[in-house]
Amino acid sequence: MATTATMSKRSLWGGGAVQPLKASYGKLMMWFFLVSDAFTFSGLLIAYAFLRWSAPAYNGDPEAFTFSTEYWPIPEKVYEAFPGFHGVELPLVFVGLMTFILILSSVTMVLAVEAGHRMDKKAVVKWMLWTIIGGFAFLSCQAWEWSHFISGTDTATISDVMVNGIWKENYEIFGANLTFNQYGPPAFAALFFFITGFHGFHVFSGVVLNVIIFFNAATGVYERRGHYEMVEKVGLYWHFVDLVWVFVFTFFYLI
Amino acid sequence: MEQATTNVQVQPVDKAKIWGIWKVALILAVVTGIEYVFAFQMEAGALRNVIFIGLTIVKAFYIVAEFMHLGHEVKGLVYSIILPMIFILWLIMALVNLEGAAIKDARGIVDYEGDGIEHVDEEH
């Protein structure tokens, strides 16, 4: 048949009719990328856990906990701020909201994929839009969290540090930078910036991909193509971002 | 050229499937809720960390198996993805638990025990 001939010529690049493991070329490659990306995050996780395990822990009374550069902080004492509630201790509430947003945006992504299977263009566009909104909401939350983390709390932590090449004793540390921070040892903030930053960058790339897919779906590219597999592939990436957050949430905010 | 589809038939919504998706989301939310209960009601320690990691793996299973659809792929694909991850987990546990503790010990790093309890190092 003429149509199948042109189809297979075009889709040779896409693996043709041969589908090892009964998954299309594009989906398999996305899975392999995700496995390699999981290795990257594992590397970060190993570095984090190794540094944390070998750092002095705080074994005193959690009620009497104060920040010090001498030991690793209790996470719920660090992450207890919420926009608009200055001075109110709300441990882990904001990060809970972020988790909730990311899980919801994962759900809307699954709904977009499901709508794609039914060739329902309107529903795909709708759910992709919600997924993009969820992604932006998460990124905004992270921007606020970072800015709060960097500017710090009202009370300074006193420690001896090097500032612009000059050794300063009993220096008042507010917030965090790449050399020292008020919450704990320098590695604490460095790892926070690196790991949540790397994850945030993944979320950002995911939002960019989602926007591209959203426009393609809205302009009918996938409808003309006859399938919405691109939504599935980008969906895999988006869920992976959610998956990484689940681990970051546990290892950074709970443990 | 790509084959252009002219007649697109929108298939009706399968209510059970949609409910299945929301059910997974509900499970994820409930497991996160349980994590919060442990975070606030239980004292920090090795046991609590194990519980957290266990619950994280439960959440990861639902995301990968249902949202990423891996639970419905052929076995070969499932294992080619899961097996490397299991080996990586093994590596993580070995590095963190054994090597991390050994390095801490070798460097002579002592934990902070709170005010009033001073560690006196006999050698100095």
CATH superfamily of chain A: Cytochrome c oxidase, subunit III, four-helix bundle
* Category by helix and strand content of chain A: mainly alpha
Distance between the termini of chain B: 80 Å
Shape of chain B: elongated
Count up the helices of chain A.
8
The percent range for strand residues of chain B is: under 5%
Text of the CATH class of chain A: Mainly Alpha
Question: Looking at the chains present, what oligomeric state does this protein adopt?
Answer: heterodimer
Strands of chain B, count:
0
Return the average pLDDT of chain B rounded to an integer.
83
Kindly provide the radius of gyration of chain B, computed on alpha-carbon positions and rounded to a whole number of angstroms: 24 Å
Radius of gyration of chain A: 23 Å
Helix content of chain A: 55-70%
Extract low-pLDDT stretches of chain A: 1-7
Number of domains of chain A: 1
Mean pLDDT of chain A equals: 88
- Placed side by side, the strands forming the largest sheet of chain A appear as 1-2
Walk me through the topology.
The complex is a heterodimer of chains A (255) and B (124).
Chain A: H1 2-11, H2 25-53, H3 75-78, H4 93-117, H5 121-151, E1 157-163, E2 166-173, H6 186-218, H7 221-225, H8 229-254
Antiparallel strand pairs in A: 1-2
Helix pairs in contact in A: 2-6, 2-8, 4-5, 4-8, 5-6, 6-8
Chain B: H1 15-41, H2 46-67, H3 75-107
Molecular structure report:
- The complex is a heterodimer of chains A (255) and B (124).
- With 255 residues, chain A is mostly helical.
- Helix content of chain A is 64%, strand content 6%.
- A two-stranded antiparallel sheet of chain A has the order 1-2.
- In chain A, helix 2 packs parallel to helix 8 and helix 4 packs antiparallel against helix 5.
- The relative contact order of chain A is 0.14.
- With 124 residues, chain B is mostly helical.
- Chain B folds into two domains: 15-72; 74-110.
- Chain B has three helices and no strands.
- In chain B, helix 1 packs antiparallel against helix 2.
- The longest helix of chain B has 33 residues, at 75-107.
- Chains A and B meet through helix 1, helix 2, helix 4, helix 7 and helix 8 of A and helix 1, helix 2 and helix 3 of B.
